Amino acid sequence: MSAAEKTMPEPLPCLTAAKIFLVSVFFSCLFPPAIFFLAKSLGVAVKGNLWFLLGWELYFPTLCALGGIGWLLHADDCRYGISRLHFTDGTTILGGWLFALAGNLCICLGWKKLLEFLQWDFSTRQSILEMAQNSPATVFWLLFLFTAGIVPFFEEIVFRRALYSLLLPLGKGTALITGAAIFSAMHFFLLGAPGLFFFGIVLQLLFLRTKNLLVPIAVHSLFNASAMIAAHFGQG
């Protein structure tokens, strides 16, 4: 038995290929133009290039999800690692969320001090958080739905399931670190890079411990929701 087979969850009931593919295509093709139209028509102030924002932070992650899902669909069985949550999983999810938030905050504060000392230029917020801060309620809740509801589901399938499995022949430690590094790099956010690397490791360990992808999905969703709410309702 290979290392990959030892760490993969047992075959579990999961969403059908057709449903996942159709949802992916729908949000890839329709959601970014809809957000762009709303932002332009409502006069939302967004720092930087709006097309860059939509291209890398909304459209690109979903297309990456299609690649990961396509790889999974060629497996011998439907082993996404998605199963029903139990009551005891609530403690794991809550603890993982708080641990990820606290660790991310501490790491980013230290990293920010270092960047300031080195006099490197960096943005203090991701562009999607800038958009959430400046947007009216309609645009904000659409962004919130995508960021806290859709993105965690697809990203966890890609990074914690597909990518980790592909990297596993290199060794468990290498797969863990490399997957977290790629996860961090794909957010294109210098200030948040170390914190996102830490977050990626936490999410992967949660999946390996529970063998249920819904646990890191829930933690990821709570984390993104916290960031969006803080950006929109916080004071600067």
Question: Percent range for helical residues?
Answer: over 70%
Q: What's the story with the biggest beta sheet?
A: none
Q: Count up the helices.
A: 9
3D shape: globular
Name the structural class. mainly alpha
Q: Would you count the extended β strands for me?
A: 0
Runs with pLDDT <50, length 5+?
10-15
Taken as a percent bin, the fraction of beta residues is under 5%
Q: What order do the SSEs take from the amino end to the carboxyl end, as H and E?
A: HHHHHHHHH
State Rg: 18 Å
* Overall pLDDT confidence: 76
Explain this structure to me?
The relative contact order is 0.16. The protein starts with a helix and ends with a helix. The chain is an all-alpha fold and 236 residues long. The longest helix is centred in the middle third of the chain and has 31 residues, at 137-167. It contains nine helices and no strands.
Give a quick rundown of the structure:
The chain is an all-alpha fold and 236 residues long. 75% of the residues lie in helices and 0% in strands.
